[in-house]
Amino acid sequence: MLPEGADTVVIQEVSARDGDRVTFSTAGAPGRHVRRRGRDFSEGDVLLRRGRPLTIRDLALAAAMNHASVPAYRRPRVALVATGDELVAPGADPGPGQIVHSNGFMLAALARREGAEVLDLGIVPDRLDETVAAIRRARAAAVDVLVTTGGASVGDYDMVQDALTAEGMALAFWKVAMRPGKPLMSGRLGPVHVLGLPGNPVSSFVGAVLFLVPLLRRLQGRDDVTLAVEPAVAARDLKPNDERADHLRATLSVDPEGRLVATPVGDQDSSLLAPLGLADALLVREPHAAAVPAGGLCRVIRLPA
Q1: Residue limits of the MoaB/Mog domain (predicted)?
Q2: Which CATH number fits domain 230-302: 3.30.470.20, 2.40.30.10, 1.10.287.1700, 2.40.340.10?
Q3: What is the pLDDT of residues 103-146, one digit of tens each?
């Protein structure tokens, strides 16, 4: 604290003492090197608002504000279960009719990016007993969200919904008027939120962005639950849409006028990861949307990195 009557501090580095006499090589100025009380924050200031993820810097700020603890939401726990006799792990040599499993790595990374802890229960064959066993392992681990991939449609080997129903799931909805991702399923298994995603990788990813991300944010009390939708300009003609909401994978650029431009990638098939890897955003086309000429307005949702 400054002595009574002082209003300036001259640092020792520019000072020289000779007995009781001090000389300065640099002149001081009123208020120089003085930190006034309340300069950082004052009593009653709200600096950590509800709904924002706590950063490393926030922890220092909370401590400096003399809070020994702050109320916070814990990280949600997410269990992943992939179903399908055709799936093999990366590094394996796929046989006829087999494909390399990719959804689990993508979904785990997305969930962790959104602040969740992930329990990957691996690949489950298309058998009811093994699917039920995986669901029970997720429940025993006290997860908050169970995400399944594959087995959510109407084929003979699509038995995820049967397994969940046998375990007591209350179905909220099944099948959504969207493309890709129509056979998406949602429900509750006691306290566990259930999200059944399609097996096609792009369908799985789009469904996770639109449904899993907002759910994880809600469970953490965040204030950015609703995904941001931005206006953009279509780089090429967009055809009229049918009864399903389209989510076209698109790249983003900025034109000379400073407008955001969305260019749909060439092939929109829901099995193709290479075009998805090029995309920056989802170009959203509402059901029954009218045709949009090149240069017309559209809407996009930026994809997480």
Answers
A1: 79-218
A2: 2.40.340.10
A3: 999 999 999 999 999 999 999 999 999 999 999 999 999 999 99
